[in-house]
Amino acid sequence: MPTSKKQRLRRGAIAAVVVAAAAAIPAAQASSHREAPLIAADPAVDNTDVYAFTSPDRPDTVTLIANWFGLQEPNGGPNFYPWATDARYDLNIDADGDALPDKTFRFTFTTDDRRGGKSPTFLYNNGPVTSINDENLLFRQNYNLELIEGNKTTTLVRNGRAAPSNTGPASFPNFGTIRDQATSKLPGGGQVYVGPSEDSFFLDLRVFDLLYGGNLKEVNQDTLMGYNVNTIAIQVPKTMLALKGDPKRNPVIGVWSDTEKRTLKLEPGKATPQGDFVQVSRLGNPLVNEVVASAPIKDAFNALQPVNDAKVQALLDRVNDPELARLIQQIYGIPAPKTPRADLVEIFLTGITTKAGGPIKADLNSQLNNADVDPKKFQPSEMLRLNMGVPVAKDPNRLGVLAGDLQGFPNGRRLTDDVVDIEIQAVVGAALTGKLVPALAKGDRVDKNDVRFGDKFPYVGLPRNRAVNSN
Amino acid sequence: MWKSLPLLAALLAVAACASPQAATPAAQQSASSSLQHNAESLQAKLRRTPQDAAAWAQLGATHVELARVTFDPQHYSRAERALTESLRLKPEGNGDAFIGRGALANAKHDFAAARDWGQRAVTALPDNASAQGVLVDALTQLGDDAGASVALQRMLDLRPGVASFTRAAYHFELHGRVDEAREALNRALESASSEAERDFCRFQLDELKGRTNEEALEVYRGLVAKAPSPDYLVKYGKALDKAGKPAEARAQFDLALQQLRALGGDDLTAALIAADHGDPAEALRFAEKEWAKRQSVFTADALSWALHVNKRSAEALQYSDKAVALGWRDPEVLRHREAILGSLR
Hints:
The complex is a heterodimer of chains A (471) and B (345).
Chain A: H1 5-23, E1 47-54, E2 61-72, E3 87-94, E4 103-113, E5 139-149, E6 152-161, H2 175-181, E7 183-185, E8 191-198, H3 206-213, E9 228-237, H4 238-241, E10 252-262, E11 277-283, H5 288-291, H6 295-303, H7 313-320, H8 323-332, H9 342-350, E12 384-387, H10 419-427, H11 430-433
Antiparallel strand pairs in A: 1-2, 2-9, 3-4, 3-10, 4-5, 5-6, 7-8, 8-9, 10-11, 10-12
Chain B: H1 4-18, H2 20-23, H3 26-48, H4 53-70, H5 74-89, H6 95-107, H7 111-124, H8 129-142, H9 145-158, H10 162-174, H11 178-191, H12 195-209, H13 213-226, H14 230-242, H15 246-263, H16 268-277, H17 280-293, H18 297-309, H19 313-324, H20 331-344
Helix pairs in contact in B: 3-4, 3-12, 4-5, 4-6, 5-6, 6-7, 6-8, 7-8, 8-9, 8-10, 9-10, 10-11, 11-12, 13-14, 14-15, 15-16, 16-17, 16-18, 17-18, 18-19, 18-20, 19-20
């Protein structure tokens, strides 16, 4: 942007005034070493949620949804919320229960930034965008989708178009059209959407502050209302995910998402300063950091591969003896169930099964229940486990399995499952007794999302386009 | 040092009244807005649950970042208060607060204290990248290159991102590996998620590329207007000197020296200014004092130059050797070295 001479002169004059004034008084900091950012968030690669459920309108398929980059304010220009181009976004499937991915759907991104050139601008779009190829859309991102199975890699989508951030009602008069155009068919049946959506998670984020801080009086506000996330949604036939391609004999799959970024090696002598990809974020069950992991192991957990979960004693200890149960006992006098918590081990680490010696008398969603699984190779690990054989519930209950609706969390996770309330109930032993604890029945008092979910793929809400505070 | 802060805050407030654009330009506001937003949500959280030691610690660390970005020293006292509260609530194993304390000590150039806090943070949070970052900054300034490299590699492997890539760029630069430094800064820019981070990366890329004198005048005048810190004043002064304005340049150097004398604490910059534009004896006093505290490439360069301007070039050479031993090829450092070598021929 050219600065007029007049403006420049004025700025110079202001600088002179400030400097002259400063002469009288010592300045703040002797900043002679380079102060680089330290507490730098990297939300673009942070997983926020994972969902896995039998598609209600296409029950021979499963829909997997993973979100990143939480708390997007719809008015967040000028760069809005791009996918990282130096990262791998993975959705992993473990059907044989060895805690290693049998299949990884890997998304990688490139940016096509058209803001330079003849008329340089900082604008994301320079006019209304009515289609995904609209020439007014200046900041674009494309993705490749690969399916990795052991040593075999198959490209499923090359140069797919990710839907752009929703920069406002004037820029995107009909985001639904853009989203439809950004939804691609997959070879072998199935479809994929990559782009922003309304954050489907509904909860009072403050519930954990308050539980840890001593009371539950102040909840009932969906603290994620109005924010968007970056979503990858993929719908594929159950036969593609099930062990041996047979969802009848082997209906259970484990699902988790992770993000990897390439590190950088300092040692000299390399042509380029590159390094291995390292896992920087991981997510299977919701709220594991809040309910299970504590601060000291949170960082380790994000870097940990599921296959190593059972070797990390600190993690096992936290599942077997969660601090949350003891806090609830202090506040509500609801006795914390006896430890070690084999019921929580089932929910978080093995899946609900009678075959691992756990206390819950049901066979629901452990890979151990797959007919072709070798139990000797089974490894407890934290992942979301879905029994694809449970039929779609006619009238889904937000409390899922705890309320007798076996299609809901912790059997996979639907968009409408109230995972906060379910997990709080589970922590006080509801899965063990089969009874909900009445004192906590209201939970965070946020029972559903503020936006209705769609009845067809990708089911999530369209991204908001108004500033959170203007709602 | 801290006594002077309220005065400066008052000055900035006056400047802000006189000219809002100068003290808080729009770009500056947007650069700090995401951090400001973080600070506000943490404050809201703490109003509900004031016993949350981790939230106090995060608030403290956020204020250290805000001070870096806005140049408003009030953030240091806010950081100090929040971190003190966090440690009062949880004195042991409070990794987040140790990180905040370490970051604050680094910002105050108390690098030995920063190293100690960094080590405590790493013990409490062995897999946390920010804890390693505190250690990297402290060890680099203390001259422990091997220790800094180990911590930095660990930081990169834990969290390849803006914080670790920008530190890698500095590491490469200090080792004379400019192409890799540029590469690391480009990766940092790619990972940046806020305007403040992007500004920092672009500024460092431009510094690496070098500036024409006209660009230097414009850039440093802007920075001096925002924050009359000694470092920026020196750079602005040098640009004015080159532009044939020795009187104006002189004013910047005097101002920088005056501030540094009042501040105490870190004598590195004071030594270099005094060596070029002030009293050689004072320069040597400053340089020796700082060298006694930390034997790094920075203090080696300052001491070599101070010895040289005191006509002790033979002694200066050994320190100049230390300054370039890692491969650092900063133009100023090379200028000092050439003059020292020249006088010994």
